[in-house]
Amino acid sequence: MKVTKYLAAALLLIAPATFASPASDKDVKEENRLENAGTVIDEILNVPDNIPQDLLNKARCVIVLPSVVKAAFIVGGSYGHGVMVCRTGEHFRGPWGAPAMYALEGGSVGLQIGGQATDFVILVMNDRGAESLLHSKVKLGADAAIAAGPKGRDAQADTDAYLRAEMLSYSRSRGVFAGVSLEGSTLRPDGDANRKLYGREASAAEIITESKFHAPEAAHRLISRLQKASPELRP
Q1: Whole-number Å distance between alpha carbons of 224 and 148
Q2: 3, part of any domain
Q3: What's the pLDDT tens digit per position in 75-122?
Q4: Residues spanned by the domain of 51
Q5: Residue at 219 is within a domain
Q6: Which of 15, 103, 112, 202 is the most buried (most CB within 10 A)?
């Protein structure tokens, strides 16, 4: 009888830790990615000669992939994980909303980044580009037009190349920030990461377009910095 009582007491003690709900036991790795993405975008936007302000004002979504390492390009597997944040509301015209996790995949895309970690930032410039990313894997350069983004305060952001592109991509490595081509690689919603982050099944489309999803605390720096830099869409 005493053994039974002791066993019951032990189970009561370990139950909260063992059977904690997924929503309260978020994956630390996903939150770290959100925090790292916030750091990357904050540092990049603090330099006026990086992303032109008029391009950021026109962007529907921003994708940040922190610390991509070249070693993964060699094996051609999944080599980059990050986050996409979009403006809310119809036609992506409202404030910046909850983040969805994304993965960048594919073989070599011609990057000369050495062995160091490289941050990538992608601006999604129109509704079609944003919608395509919400529902399926997108091959850059084939399913969606992408170009190396211009940089600097006086960059000519209204040239034909930039007007035709659905996405503009940038890289930062060893403090050097530049436009970079990502043609040939793919972007896809990271379903496992989204489920871990929100504690339930959550598609990228639901997270981005439905108000029932609220941004985790770890995304505060990322979203607030974008909101401060570009509070409204200016087509």
Answers
A1: 26
A2: no
A3: 444 468 999 999 999 899 999 999 999 999 875 544 444 556 789 999
A4: 25-229
A5: yes
A6: 202
